[in-house]
């Protein structure tokens, strides 16, 4: 059995002899795929792909290596200096949290052909009225830069005890934290959310404490009801602490949980400031998923203070999710792969272009040294990226 190709013309490039994990539920594994232009034109067996070999077709022998869709980092703080790291980590799309002033530089890089990863940009929610203009400017880059939405901040950080909690921090002098100034006026926040909907912008809100997450879920629920939104792709970013009674609200309203798997390494020190009972619900990836939340993974690279605290590697992130400190919240390797590919593509409304390897999809893919589904869990992070392909061309070659 094979996936039909888009046309019967010879392919520009053919990858064959591999273990290709398409992540397409109807055809999850293949031996070969063909690339025509910047799209995948065929996925199937080595034998079936021979009909697409022409006199100028470039053949890439995979020698049994593992191939999968390129990683899509759903939460990054991008700077141009990160481009080599993105390539090396197999990241073909980076969803960056940026300022309006960053956009011209991104567009310049795209116009010069310097981007080796697609940039999906979120700008401050306060700039909602200018969203159509910013989106139109980015649209000139042919899909290399896209303004996909707007971001708000509901609270601060756990380590600074500024995340907004239902109950006080263990050190009672710190109180419960608080909502950020931008959202303390509920009516003003609602007006900005309404503005975002009016211009067709996706909304993501940073929410770390359990009280902040409860507040954001409430405002989202009102927004969905007010505008009768059927397919909104609203995101809660981080969702680091969630009260058990609030998990079901994610699934009930089809909310996306944009989480950072490596953040779960904070659980040991988090116990000191919020106590053991609450850390049971920290970085609760399994509970979120089990309650119907759509998961997408991001690295949050480089970290809140601008130095590399959180690793960029999606493979290290997946390892962290699989070996979660709280065994009840662990994900499978396959679930981790999906959250870093299909989940992120869905969050930005690009599931028809990215996240799976099927005919007609963008030829953004990676070749790995080992199959993550077969190595011991504590070795996932040591898997090497052998090749990164973006737009049907190799943008990174690692050591074999």
Description:
With 400 residues, the chain is an alpha/beta fold. 27% of the residues lie in helices and 22% in strands. The strands form three sheets. It has an eight-stranded parallel beta sheet. Helix 4 links the parallel strand 10 and strand 11.
Task: State the low-pLDDT regions, or none.
Answer: none
Largest sheet: 8 strands, parallel
Rg from alpha-carbon coordinates: 21 Å
Arrangement of strands in the largest sheet: 8-9-10-11-12-13-14-15
Structural class: alpha/beta
Number of strands: 18
Q: Please report which band the strand proportion falls in: under 5%, 5-15%, 15-25%, 25-35%, 35-45% or over 45%.
A: 15-25%
Dominant shape = globular
Helical proportion, percent range: 25-40%
Query: Mean of residue pLDDT?
Result: 95
Report the end-to-end length measured between terminal Cα atoms: 30 Å
Alpha plus pi helix count = 14
Key terms:
alpha/beta, 27% helix, six-stranded mixed β-sheet, eight-stranded parallel β-sheet, 14 helices, 400 residues
Structure summary:
The chain has 400 residues and is α/β, with parallel strands linked by helices. The chain has helices spanning 46-49, 83-88, 103-111, 131-138, 181-184, 186-198, 210-227, 247-252, 267-274, 276-279, 285-290, 314-322, 333-339, 342-347, and strands spanning 13-16, 19-21, 29-30, 32-36, 39-44, 58-61, 66-69, 71-76, 91-97, 118-124, 145-153, 202-207, 235-238, 256-259, 294-297, 365-368, 385-390, 393-397.
Blueprint of the fold:
Blueprint: E1 13-16, E2 19-21, E3 29-30, E4 32-36, E5 39-44, H1 46-49, E6 58-61, E7 66-69, E8 71-76, H2 83-88, E9 91-97, H3 103-111, E10 118-124, H4 131-138, E11 145-153, H5 181-184, H6 186-198, E12 202-207, H7 210-227, E13 235-238, H8 247-252, E14 256-259, H9 267-274, H10 276-279, H11 285-290, E15 294-297, H12 314-322, H13 333-339, H14 342-347, E16 365-368, E17 385-390, E18 393-397
